[in-house]
Amino acid sequence: MLTSVGAASRVGVVAALCMVVAGAAGWARAGEATAQPPKSVKVAAISLVWDEGQRTLVNALRALDEAGAAGADIACLPEECVYQAAETIPGPAADAIAGRAAQHKMYVVGNLREKDGGKTYVTSFLCDRQGRIVGKYRKSHRLPYEEGLTLGDELPVFATDLGVIGMKIGTDHFFPEIDTVLRRRGASLVVWSAAPFPLRDEHMETLALQGRAVDNNLSYAVARYAGRKDYGGYRDTFSWMATWPLGRAQVLDNDGHTRADSGHAGGLALATLPAQAATRKWTNEEGFRRPDAKLANGAGYPATGVYAAIAAEKPPAPFERKPGAKRTIKVAAIESEGNIDRLIAKLDACGRLGCDIVCLWEYVWYNNDAEVEKFRDRNRQYLARIADSAKRHAMYVVIAGELERGFNEAILYSREGNELGRYTKINQTTDKKSKYYQAGDRVGIFDLDFGRICVKICADVYTPEIDRVAALHQADLMLVPTQDAGPFTEHTRLRDAHRCLDDGYFLLRAACATAQTDHRTYIMDPWGVMLAASQYQTNNEPVVATLQLDNRPKYHEWPEEVRKAGPYPDPYKRGLDEKALSNMYTARPQPVAKGDLRAVLLAQRRPELYRARE
Questions:
Q1: Of 6, 125, 166, 557, which one has the greatest count of Cβ atoms within 10 A?
Q2: Domains along the chain with CATH numbers
Q3: How far apart are CA 244 and CA 239, in angstroms?
Q4: Could you tell me if 460 and 439 are in contact, meaning their C-beta atoms sit under 8 angstroms apart?
């Protein structure tokens, strides 16, 4: 059964959940454990064929029969799984889908274009094991090309005997606040029903989801489309991105691992996941994992405090670029170097290479209050030498750690060798018993001559809200001086890569060598791709890369003539001849780049949906 809150709970389960979704009656009770929850859940994500004539009710029901025969506890269909005019939910197609849920005694998440009065929505609906439609989620975000669509105004979750379920649809994907809000409201599984985007790039989609799984402790059922002719549309031929969708269904666990994958031919991705109790512990203040998060009905981002910008009505002002500002820069990250003379030598090497900014490690130059005072003069001399190197080579330098004031902080030196600013570590690791203890109360945003940077330190990585604030400020670079090494290195890379993607920055990570062979210092771009990295356990030279800061992910739309022709971007319908079609690199309709992706997404955010509710 499903549970709900408020007065609706007195009038029956079905009515209660309809009220939850429809408006202000309340949210599904995410924090209430269900009776005798199962030890595991069998999740089926379905990839239907996208091609014209394939998105039929018959094919959707056939796929549900396959999932039911496999013993699925929940089956999930892709976006607008039946290609038809909008209809009511409940309605003929939705009722038929719900009937399969009853037949196989499984939950089903379907998705249809919904008509409600004079409005049209894209809606995911949850069917219970008895075939009742017990909840709906209406797509709440859109991109500029999604015209004529009314958006829903809720981010609900639903408590079931499988755990708590959240849903998102299509281009909701580009707004990571949705995932976090659903998790804060108790969801342990998020169902993403999607249709092809103009720019079909599985790297950007899947990597982002894997990292969000890690950050949010969430599992995902991913229901996307496949093409009639397998990978890319031409069997055994890579056809780039403009023919058939690169489609697949996937089930991802909360470590970001792929537990099941349908492959590009489509079909069923079936995985058994451990059941996640609705009240599963997510916060760990000692480990600095979201200390402000509370798993509760209506939970969301706070309206005040360090991260208030996430839920604020207006985003911060973008970087004010001066005419002729340098936007191609050389950057460096220097792995842990304990000897000050060798550190200065490496800084000087960066200067000779023409580096514009260098990120140093997170140092610990004292161990207690007595040593703060004992080594203060020495440590300030170290800092003076670093500042002098910045001045000699006209480059910015960032160093962090327990340096000279008794708490963990970062110092930014200007090209003139002056102290340009300091950032106090928010997730402070200084002993709270220290008389010098101080925790940061702001995100470390700084404007330089080439662009905007953000600085965070070590344990700050366990608070992704820092990165979202950096994204809202449209930071170009994230600098991370760090001694963090876990919980495991794959976790670290997924976390960093997805945040580059979701938050749109380049990353400089200055780390230290550990026993794990893939634990490195590295530089990443806004696609989450590693541009340069240190070698394993050796005396590394600085890791250096040239960055073109305006080379960033773009927002794409299909050309207007393709959009007018219908939802199937099939080149055969664009009048191309057979000879042109045989060339796999040219003569195919290509999506058109229309501006910076991050800037477009920031304009489409809906912060009123992210705020905590009483």
A1: 166
A2: 33-284 (3.60.110.10), 329-548 (3.60.110.10), 559-593 (no CATH)
A3: 8
A4: no
